[in-house]
Amino acid sequence: MMNGEKKQNLIRNFCIIAHIDHGKSTLSDRFLEITKTVEKRKMQEQLLDTMSLERERGITIKMQPVRMDYKHTDGKDYILNLIDTPGHVDFSYEVSRSIAAVEGAVLLIDATKGMQAQTLAVLEQAQKQNLVIIPAVNKIDLPNAMPKEVKAEISNFLMIEESEILEISGKTGAGVPELLCEIIKKIPAPKGREDAPLKALVFDSVFDAFKGVIANVRIVDGSVKRHEKIRFMVQKTQSDVLECGAFKPSLVERPELLTGEIGYIATGLKEIGNVRVGDTITLQNNPASENLPGYKEVQPVVFASLFPQDADDYDFLRDGLLKLRLNDSSLSFEPEQSEAFGRGFRCGFLGMLHMDIVKERLKREFNIDPLVTIPSVSYNVKLNNGTEKLIYSPAQMPDPTHIKETEEPYVRMEIITRSEYVGGIMGLLDRARGIYKETQYLTQEKILLLYEAPLSEIIVDFFDDLKSVTSGYASLNYELIGFKKAELVKLDMLVAGEPVEALSRVVVKIRAQEIGKTMVAKLKDIIPRQLFAVSLQAAVGGKILAREDLSAMRKDVTGYLYGGDVTRKKKLLEKQKKGKKKMKAMGKVNIPPEVYFKVLKK
Q1: Which tens digit of pLDDT belongs to each residue from 569-590?
Q2: Residue 265's pLDDT is what?
Q3: Displacement of CA 297 from its chain's centroid (Å)
Q4: Residues 247-273: pLDDT tens digits?
Q5: CB–CB of 212/268 below 8 Å?
Q6: How far apart are CA 109 and CA 184, in angstroms?
Q7: What is the CATH number of domain 199-283?
């Protein structure tokens, strides 16, 4: 049996950082095969993507840790702790947490696509954490692979020799054993103190009906055993260690977690809010003097309201959101009351994909299909009395007479593309009110465009439009940089003269008429026809900017007549006309829930 110090020297903690579809999960599969962590008969593609949603969409949503025991050619038994991370910009918070729990990262680049904007952003985070970066070009087995060109690109960016960049195929396994050797050789062992009081960083958590809250931890100092009493230093929560162990990749109980290891602690806590990602776990009877730095608070950028379709399901929706937030700490929500929909929750998301995933998970995991309002961003409103107010929905917009100035959030954008598509991208960014900053040449053919643009123009359709104008040869990354002055107004949608709060939007004044016309035209197509004519209007304040009319359904009241005096028909039609006039004055338009969903779509 090796002593603690020696065992710590044989631990390697690392993650894989890459863009979507560059082969992270496939490479993880090969690691699991080579290290014999999973038996061949139990092996399946994208094994670490445990959600059905991840498999269907072919993307990683949740980070997934796994421990691999590997006998190296030097005869030593190494412990390799891998954290598989998402690649989409909406889940960059997941990546930042995994980066803080490891000492090294494999930078994986697709040999057919080269460096992408999101990869550059994650790489910068890893370099700030002083992680050892091991670059590798993946998918060299594909006929359209360009390993030489991609290696030159990486070499220029990282300022390293091309010979230091590995060529691998996650699919066939070519070069993967050599990559494992590089990980063992270059990534340093963890530098924790075994004799110090326990300090364990909580980098993720999940809820189990039997074991309570399970905290995924990196043991920085000390060790922890089953039945010991622990304390969460930030939340001031106490509990017993019901169980501790490692990910193989399913939970495998172990008697003890030692310094430098990555594993889990089952706390038995039933209150979901008692465990926070970024908290430090220490022992109750031998506490650490100070907690670990943790993580910066995640900033939601897209806001939308979720309402149960049946008012009686409010408690189910709340419980579902609470359980989702336990293993998705980037989700934020607070109760909200709406005249149109009753009680619900105002939720903050990291992007449109994140919102879509949360909605889908609520449906699949908790059998809740919520009504989702039109997504918006937060705006800053400066009032005449000198105060400032952040608004997250059009309903919170103050009266225009009280507003001195309005500001909207801006983002710094990085777009990597080929030189022939620059004109189309610049035209797209002009329409999105983008501000040009800089152009950098990564290679002779690849260009990095730097822009600043309003977040509201980016969140909904910009990514799809970008892919369209570049035939798919562009990647995008953005980060918030703060608020800038903008003339904003509340655009109201009137149906039969009545404002529908759920369809209101905060828009920039110069685009209010254009957006209003689009909205009323869309509503005309999707609102069911009524028994009376309905006016659809877009208005700012008392001014109508756009209008469409929904014609009435017409019942043939003379159909049963056969022959006879024409005045009989006229009398019936006149009676119908009076009835429709009365209905128009008194009738209410019933807007089905699916109308709001359809308005979301492009």
Answers
A1: 777 777 767 666 655 555 566 6
A2: 92
A3: 15
A4: 887 888 998 999 999 999 999 888 767
A5: yes
A6: 20
A7: 2.40.30.10
Identify which of 341, 407, 419 has the alpha carbon closest to the alpha carbon of residue 374. Answer: 341
> Which residues lie closer than 8 Å to 415 by C-beta, 6 or more apart?
117, 425, 448, 449, 451, 466, 474, 475, 476
Q: How far apart are CA 378 and CA 299, in angstroms?
A: 11
The CA-atom distances, in angstroms, between 438 and each of 414, 415, 426, 543 are 10, 11, 12, 40
Task: Give me the residues paired with residue 59 across strands.
Answer: none
Q: Which residue has the tokens 């970066």?
A: 133
What is d(CA 260, CA 295) in angstroms, rounded to the nearest whole number? 19
Return the structure tokens found at 354: 């994140």
Q: Give the CATH fold of the 380-485 domain.
A: Alpha-Beta Plaits (3.30.70)
Q: Span 302-372: which CATH code? A: 3.30.70.870
Q: Which of 165, 171, 201, 195 is nearest to 13 (CA)?
A: 201
Reply yes or no: is the peptide bond before residue 249 cis, omega within 30 of 0: yes
* CATH class of this structure's domain 4-186: alpha beta
Compute the mean pLDDT over every residue in the chain, rounded to the nearest whole number. Answer: 81
Is the CB of residue 328 less than 8 Å from the CB of residue 358?
yes
Res 47: pLDDT: 47
CATH classification number, 489-600, choose in 3.40.718.10, 3.30.70.2570, 3.40.50.12280, 3.60.15.10: 3.30.70.2570
